[in-house]
C-alpha cells in the first residue's frame, strides 16, 4: 500500500499561536512578561524547549535546568489551550480525503507528545482521516530517527519504500533522507519559500497540489 506521512505542526496545522501562548504562560508565572512574540513562530515549530531557551536568553540567563523545570508547566498550559487559535491549513482535509480515495494510507508522524497530538487532531475533527499517529514519545526515539517514520508506515499496512513525507522543517527532510523516501516541504509554513534552501524533492505551495504530487513521487 502506498502511504503519505504528514508532520503535524507547521504542516497540517498552524499551531504557533497556542504554542507561544503556552511558553509565555511559563514566563508570566515566573514574574516576567511575555518573552515571545508572533515573530517567533519559527522557534515555536522547533518545540517547547526551543521556545523556553529563547525566552530565557532574552532574560540574560539560560540553563538546561531552568528549561527542564518549566517544561512540564509549558505542556500543561498548552494542553489547556491547545486549539484556541490553531487552524488547519487551507485544503488539508480535502487533500487527505482525495489521497485516501485513491487508495493511499495516510498517517501522522510528529515530534509533539503523542497524547497532545491525539487531543489536537481529535479537537480539529481529523483523527479519522489518519490510520496511525506516532508522537515524540510513542517510541524511544523521535524524528529525525527513522524508527518513528517507519512505524507510522508499517502500522498502517504500508511499505516504507512506497511512501513519502510531507513536512516543513529540516528535521522532516533529514527523516525522509534517513528513510530513503521522497519529501515535500510546504511553503505555507513558517519559512515560506525560503524552505527551498533545504533542496527537498518537491515544494508544496498548496494542499490542492498534493494528490498529483503523491502520484508522481510514490510508486
Can you describe what's shown?
This protein is an alpha/beta fold. It has 2 domains: 3-14 and 86-217, HAD superfamily/HAD-like (Rossmann fold, 3-Layer(aba) Sandwich); 16-80. 42% of the residues lie in helices and 13% in strands. The chain contains 9 helices and 8 strands. It has helices at 16-29, 41-44, 48-58, 64-80, 92-101, 114-123, 146-154, 170-179, 210-217; strands spanning 3-6, 13-14, 87-88, 105-109, 132-134, 163-167, 183-186, 202-204. The strands form 2 sheets. Strands 5-4-1-6-7-8 form a 6-stranded parallel β-sheet, sandwiched between helices. A two-stranded antiparallel sheet has the order 2-3. Strand 6 (163-167), helix 8 and strand 7 form a beta-alpha-beta unit. Helix 3 crosses helix 4 (64-80). The longest helix has 17 residues, at 64-80. The N and C termini lie close together (10 Å). Its EC number is 3.1.3.18.
Q: From the structure provided, what is the oligomeric state, counting identical versus distinct chains?
A: single chain
Write down how many β-strands occur, each being a DSSP E stretch of 2 or more residues. 8
Order of SSEs, N→C? EEHHHHEHEHEHEHEEH
Low-confidence stretches: none
CATH topology of the largest domain: Rossmann fold
Overall 3D form = elongated
Strand content: 5-15%
Radius of gyration: 17 Å
The name of the CATH superfamily of the largest domain reads HAD superfamily/HAD-like
- What structural category do the secondary elements indicate? alpha/beta
Summarize the structure.
The protein is an alpha/beta fold and about 220 residues long.
Amino acid at each position: 500500500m502506498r502511504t503519505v506521512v504528514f508532520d503535524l505542526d507547521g504542516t497540517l496545522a498552524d499551531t504557533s499561536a497556542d504554542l507561544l501562548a503556552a511558553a509565555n504562560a511559563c514566563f508570566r508565572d515566573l514574574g516576567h512578561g511575555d518573552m515571545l512574540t508572533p515573530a517567533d513562530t519559527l522557534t515555536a515549530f522547533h518545540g517547547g524547549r526551543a521556545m523556553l531557551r529563547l525566552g530565557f536568553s532574552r532574560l540574560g540567563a539560560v540553563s538546561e535546568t531552568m528549561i527542564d523545570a518549566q517544561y512540564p508547566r509549558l505542556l500543561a498550559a498548552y494542553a489547556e489551550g491547545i486549539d484556541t487559535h490553531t487552524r488547519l491549513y487551507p485544503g488539508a482535509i480535502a487533500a487527505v480525503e482525495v489521497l485516501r480515495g485513491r487508495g493511499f494510507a495516510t498517517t501522522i508522524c510528529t515530534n509533539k507528545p503523542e497524547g497532545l497530538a491525539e487531543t489536537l487532531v481529535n479537537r480539529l475533527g481529523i483523527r479519522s482521516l489518519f490510520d496511525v499517529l506516532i508522537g515524540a514519545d510513542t517510541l524511544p526515539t523521535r524524528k529525525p530517527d527513522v524508527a518513528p517514520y517507519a512505524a507510522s508506515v508499517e502500522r498502517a499496512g504500508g511499505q516504507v519504500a512506497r511512501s513519502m513525507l510531507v513536512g516543513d522543517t529540516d528535521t522532516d527532510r533529514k527523516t525522509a533522507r534517513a528513510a530513503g523516501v521522497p519529501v515535500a516541504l510546504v511553503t505555507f509554513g513558517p519559512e515560506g519559500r525560503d524552505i527551498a534552501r533545504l533542496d527537498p524533492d518537491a515544494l508544496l505551495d498548496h494542499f490542492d497540489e498534493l494528490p498529483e504530487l503523491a502520484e508522481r513521487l510514490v510508486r
